[in-house]
Design brief:
homodimer, alpha/beta, 6% strand, elongated, disordered C terminus
Chain lengths: 623, 623
């Protein structure tokens, strides 16, 4: 049943060979990787305004344009920096790899941890913002924003479990539609202003505070969320078709140009049209003023919603790949490095979705509440990655290395300043959560690495050691214990099997009272076998303690080198619900027994026939 | 870690011997078993008023007293009937047993299913009503009633997982306090009326409808919820100390007297004081009028709350015992018949709690909404149980059987009429849910029984069959397959073990490409063994399919009678979190393999040492 459900939602398994075909071209790669950065047009400017307006009123709009200019400057710098990273790291230059290679392990996993946190926030913020856009145009949705956001994350999860290519195709076209709509809005908006349109200025009540530096920096911190998508491209180089690096660089440059035009354009529009995005989405409010209640108004709303969902989807490309890279190096559980049936990293996708859902519920899907946690992680990883590149240029030099080093060095300094700004100005608004969680993640990653190293060391054998092994020399003496509940076909089968693997067999049973002990002894005598039957009484209603006590007793006479095989039966049922009808104590018993180095658990299946058939047909009982 | 948590919340395990000590005396048994019936004073009358007042206004109070009289008559009849049941069934005369013994299996499980549903509703209704009492006195609690109710159910669950005696002791004293408080309220109320007190009559708006029979019957149906606790005593006979039957009968009689006084008394009080319990609890409103804002007002509120929680606790004694009785007869999953570490039926307790929580959330902890589902189940089981007793007297006769038969017969007829009344008058208000669910439960129970019968039949052997078994005759030929990932200490250990149990061994590995295949072949050659290594390529990244394909291929040359042992390694970690770092594909592989009748899975444990120790101490790597 589960299998069938899975195949409906996730699709049928894909073979390894399909992996190459799942890769991006520029046309399909751009929308899926650009959407994160491009979609921030929908909230970065708005959240800057929401900091400024309550304090300084209408003056906010002028400052918005100014700050947007600074952020676009940052964007240009980062784009040039990251083009260099893509050139140097053809197999994916995520901050984790770049920082680890050039700055050492701690820097690498710091970048990895910071970035993981930010991917999760990308999902939470983008989806919440998307729903906010819709609820601005369709106010009746307002009470249901949390539920809708959660459902969207679940849909994204299912889509991504289905595999890379399909998800990119499904989600690609609307991105271009969004770019078109916002461009149309910007142009129409400017044309109307040029034609002498005077917008209705809303009443703005503000505290009329002075414009302090702190205020500007708080607004700036919110605006920096516009740059969170850049990382995705350099991380995803191996997801591109060959020549992968060239394609990735093209996508990165296109992305920067689009953000520049849309982000800058809407910031200027906001100044002209004076929208106050309290509890409502700025873009939709602007569109309402420019287009009125027309088709284009709804087109802007819907495409903005869709690109925000796409932005969340970017994290679904980035997060599982990042974790799989870390997992391959031993810093995260190995399961995260494995592709599933549909060639997607299923475990990473599930992890991302669950944490994002928790955040959405905890922060009631409010963008203004989530934004405080956002961007600090990604700027931390920017800094580490740029510093790593700087060190790389200094160490390895190469053709025209100096200008490149200067670009990356500048990037490192600027982004480091941004990290400090965000950490200080946003500390009380959620950044403290990230400041606490990232070190915890680093600690856990080091522990995981240590565990894998210890396992590796315990298993590893050199070629000399392997050659020295003599498998012919008998090291173990095999002894078998067959726990039985009753004398029936199952126990006979287990005893028969035991006979084939050893000539030192003990049958073992636990009785609750003398009477039942006598009953089983009597039945066992009918077998007329030389295999001894040990009967123990259990005060607790458990099998495992008496069995282990028996093995350790002198009665069993355990000698060094003995390997004890304990047989456990396992019913194999026909229908899934029948599994609920059988005790799962087998797993419990097994786990207790396996704690002992010299016990092997042999599980013997007992295939059950169809209930109806068995009860109808007396002759056909199984042997 | 889980173990430690468990011992904090649940307590340390108790041995079998402790079972006898966990039993009830009259003094401790009365509060725990009586509380269900007694506590209904808190809602049965109130819910009758809530049906009558909107229709007929002040006239409702007179009808309330009348209907309460009828219900008290029913109570007396049922008490006498159930004393007879206790006499006849010393080991617990639950409706399931009585109906099954005398009317057959279908009647028995119908009674069982109906009663299970009612136990669950006892928890949901009692807890919701308890919280309603508190929220009437402390109005600021009103918005949190659902959350508080759910938390209470969870606390009850934990308390009951700790075992019977402790829970009865914890919960006993307040029941007596409740009885004292309500008695004090009744007496004070009457004294004040006798002294000429004239209560403030609230303004009652009603539709001024005629008093129809249907209206009276709907109110009566709600009032019948007062009788839902009676069953618990006869079910719990084996929980009493010897002489158990005598003690149980005493408890039942005391219970009836208490209900009579409290239920009758409060009904009369309601008439004198004219309370209108819309959205508020009747008892607390009456107490407010009689005691004003004094200590006694809060004492009534709190003890009423506590006894309602206790009533929910009654279901925790009844439901798991009922299910364990049904499970022992094969009508419910066997796990429900097993006592846990603390001698309580853990699985039953968990099941009861989860469904009750779902109901509380679904019906927003509203007593008036839940009451529609209530009582129909218990009256169904009353009817079946009484009919069973009637048939028993007629069949087996015995001393003075005729008057006994008449009592039980009368009980059967009257309760059957009540079932019909509730089903008709409450159908739209939730009774239809019960009418649908009970037949589904009956169907499932029959399926479960059929499955166990089929399993039993497939395993059973007669003494002749057992005697005919010749264990010396070799039936199986044992062959071993050792899947290996790499040549390391784990695979060497598995191969060594395989050597001790068979001389027909195959090593098996899955490679993703030629290169890795060559690498493992080269290493394997160093072993210089005659055990063949089979290398297969997997297009999917799975082990199980190639392995099964290999076993079925001519290359493996499977012959009839071959028993194939497949070795699987299992890391045994030191810390619980390390388990998350290892693939749990072993369980998946195992389940796939065990579907094949002739495959035994041998699980070899690999005990890992402490990470720190291993990495510190190079010499001590394990062998």
């Amino acid at each position: 049943m589960f299998k069938r459900l899975k195949s409906i939602f996730i699709g049928r398994p894909l073979p390894n060979e399909a992996l190459a075909g799942e890769k991006y071209s520029v046309f399909w790669g751009l929308p899926i990787l650009a959407s994160d950065a491009v979609s921030s047009v929908a909230y970065a400017g708005q959240e800057m305004l929401l900091v400024l307006i309550p304090a300084i009123g209408v003056l906010a709009f002028g400052q918005l344009t100014l700050l947007s200019g600074v952020i676009i400057g940052l964007l240009v710098l980062l784009t040039i920096s990251y083009r260099q990273t893509i050139d140097s790291y053809p197999s994916g230059g995520g901050s984790f790899i770049v920082a680890k290679d050039n700055l050492g392990v701690i820097s690498g996993i710091t970048a990895g941890a910071a970035l993981s946190v930010d991917y999760i926030l990308t999902v939470a913020v983008s989806v919440s913002s998307g729903v906010e856009q819709m609820a601005t145009a369709f106010q009746f949705l307002k009470p249901y924003t949390v539920v809708i956001s959660v459902v969207l994350v679940i849909l994204l999860m299912i889509g991504n479990l289905r595999g890379i290519r399909e998800s990119s195709r499904i989600f690609s076209i609307p991105t271009y539609a969004f770019i078109f709509c916002i461009l149309a809005m910007i142009i129409t908006g400017f044309v109307r202003i040029a034609n002498g349109y005077v917008p209705t200025v809303p009443e703005i009540t503000s505290a009329a505070e002075p414009l302090t530096l702190l205020l500007m920096l708080r607004a700036f911190s919110n605006g920096c969320t516009a740059l969170t998508g850049i990382e995705a491209v350099s991380n995803a180089v191996p997801n591109f078709r060959d020549p992968a690096q060239k394609r990735a660089k093209t996508v990165l440059t296109l992305l920067a140009i689009i953000v520049l035009v849309l982000f800058g354009g809407t910031a200027v529009l906001a100044q002209f049209y004076h929208v106050v995005p309290v509890n409502n989405a700025m873009l939709v409010l602007i569109a309402g003023q420019i287009f009125g209640n027309t088709f284009m108004y709804y087109a802007v709303t819907v495409t903005t919603f869709v690109i925000l969902v796409m932005a969340a989807n970017t994290a679904y490309s980035g997060f599982p790949v990042l974790l799989s890279v870390m997992a391959k190096e031993g810093y995260a559980p190995r399961q995260l490095s494995m592709r599933g049936d549909r060639l997607s990293f299923g475990n990473g996708i599930l992890l991302l979705s669950s944490i994002a859902i928790v955040l959405i519920i905890a922060f009631s899907a409010k963008v203004s509440a989530l934004i405080g946690l956002y961007a600090i992680g990604v700027f931390t990883s920017f800094t580490l990655s740029q510093t790593g590149m700087l060190i790389k240029w200094i160490r390895h030099k190469g053709k025209r290395w100096l200008p490149k080093a200067i670009v990356n060095g500048l990037g490192a300094v600027v982004t480091a300043i941004v990290v400090v700004i965000i950490a200080i100005t946003k500390f009380n608004e959620g950044a403290y959560i990230v400041v606490i969680i990232v070190p915890i993640l680093i600690f856990l990653m080091l522990r995981v690495k240590r565990h894998y190293a210890a396992v590796q060391k315990q298993l590893r054998m050199t070629s000399e050691e392997i050659s020295a092994v003599d498998l012919e020399k008998a090291v173990y003496r095999n002894r078998v214990i067959v726990p039985i509940e009753n004398i029936n076909k199952a126990s006979i089968r287990a005893l028969r099997y035991a006979k084939t693997i050893s000539d030192n067999i003990t049958a073992f049973t636990v009785a609750t009272d003398e009477e039942s002990a006598a009953r089983i002894r009597e039945k066992y005598a009918l077998l007329d076998t030389d295999i001894p039957l040990i009967v123990k009484y259990s005060t607790y209603r458990k099998v495992v303690e008496p069995l282990l006590k028996f093995i350790e007793s002198t009665e069993f006479d355990y000698r060094k080198g003995d390997m004890i095989t304990v047989m456990l039966p396992q019913f194999v049922v026909r229908k899934w619900w029948q599994r609920l009808l059988h005790n799962n104590t087998r797993y419990f018993i097994e786990r207790q027994l396996l704690k002992h180095k010299h016990i092997v658990v042999a599980v013997m299946p007992l295939q059950l026939k169809d209930d109806k058939t068995v009860l109808k047909n007396d002759q056909k009982a199984p042997k």
